[in-house]
Design a protein that fits this description.
mainly alpha
Length: about 130
C-alpha cells in the first residue's frame, strides 16, 4: 500500500490548493488622517433622558420575557427514577414494606391513645374512681 502524502489532492473531498498571484492585490489606498471631535466628559440633559428611556424600555422587555417564561414553563413533576440494578429494586421493595409498617404502627398507636382518652373522659365525667 502506498503511503499518503500530506497536501496531496488525490483524496476524495479535497480541493486543490489555490494558486494566488502577487499582482492581483490592489494597491493600498491612502488613509486620510482625521482627528475625532472631542466630546465632553459629562452627558447633557437630553442624553441622560434618552439613556433613562432606553434603560426603562430594556427593563420592561426583560420583565415581559421573564413573565412569559414563567407562564410557559410547566409545573415540575417528580417522576420516580427507574431502578437501575438489583440492589435498587430490592431497596425499593424494602422501603415499601417499611413505609407500610410505619403507617400501620401509627394507626394502631393513634387508635390506642384515642381509646385511652375516651375511657379517661368517661371515667372522669361519670365519677367512677379507682376501684
Amino acid at each position: 500500500m502506498a503511503k499518503r502524502v500530506r497536501g496531496s489532492t488525490s483524496r476524495p473531498g479535497q480541493r486543490p490548493p489555490l494558486q494566488r498571484q502577487a499582482s492581483t492585490r490592489p494597491a493600498a489606498l491612502p488613509v486620510a488622517v482625521t482627528t475625532p471631535a472631542v466630546r465632553p466628559d459629562e452627558l447633557t440633559d437630553e442624553e441622560e433622558a434618552r439613556a433613562a428611556e432606553l434603560e426603562a424600555a430594556i427593563v420592561a422587555e426583560e420583565r415581559q420575557a421573564e413573565a412569559a417564561t414563567r407562564r410557559s414553563r410547566p409545573a415540575r413533576t417528580v417522576e420516580p427514577a427507574a431502578p437501575q440494578s438489583v440492589l435498587d429494586i430490592s431497596a425499593a421493595e424494602e422501603y415499601a414494606y417499611v413505609a407500610r409498617d410505619v403507617r400501620r404502627i401509627t394507626i394502631v398507636g393513634g387508635s390506642l391513645i384515642l381509646i385511652l382518652l375516651a375511657l379517661w373522659a368517661i371515667a372522669h365525667f361519670t365519677g367512677l374512681g379507682p376501684l
